[in-house]
Amino acid sequence: MKDLDRLAAAVRELPASCGPVRLIAVDGHAGSGKSTFSAKLADALNGAPVLHLDDLATHQEPFDWTERLRSQVLCPFARGDAARYTPYDWTLRRFGPARTLHPADVVILEGVGAGRRALRPHLARLLWMDRDAEGSWQRGRHRDGPGLRDFWDGWTAAETRHFAEDPSRPFAHFLVYEFPMGYEVLRNPSVTA
Length: 193
Description:
This protein has five helices and ten strands. A six-stranded mixed sheet has the order 2-7-1-8-9-10, covered by helices on one side. A two-stranded antiparallel sheet has the order 3-6. Strand 4 and strand 5 form a beta hairpin. The protein is globular, with a radius of gyration of 16 Å. The protein is of the alpha/beta class.
C-alpha cells in the first residue's frame, strides 16, 4: 500500500479546491473498483468521507445529477458550510432522508462521471481507475448477478454515451491500477490541461 500512502501524503499537501475542501474524484467504468479503492484511500487519509455518486443518480437520471451535486454539496462546501444531500434508494426508487456531509479537509467523490467537465474546476485531483470498459462491466455484472441483467444492458449504453460526450480519463491526474497485492498509482502521461 505504499502507493496509497504516498498518494494520501500528496493529497494532504494540495490546496483546497472547493471552499475549505480538497475534493478528490475517483472516476472509471462501472465495475472498475472505484468504491473499494475509494474506501482504501479514505482509510489512508484517516477516515476521509466518501460521497458515492450512486446516491445522487437515479434509474431515470443515471448521469443527470450534476445540478443536485452542485446545489446540495458543492455550493455549501464553497461557502464552508455542511452539505445536505438526499440519497437515492435504488430498491424503493425514491430519494430518502437527507444526510449531512461536513466540509472535511479531504472529501472523496466516487462514481462514474466524477471527473466530468462541469466538476473539474472544483476538484483538487482526478483519479481514473484504469480498467477497460468490457472487463469492468463483466466484473460488475458478476458482482450484481443475473437479476440486474436488464439494468446493466441499459447502463452500459448510457455509460458509453456519457464518456463519448464527456470523457474523464484524458483529464485524470493519476491512473490507478489494481493488482492482487494492492494498487499502483501513476501520473497520467497524457493528461489534458
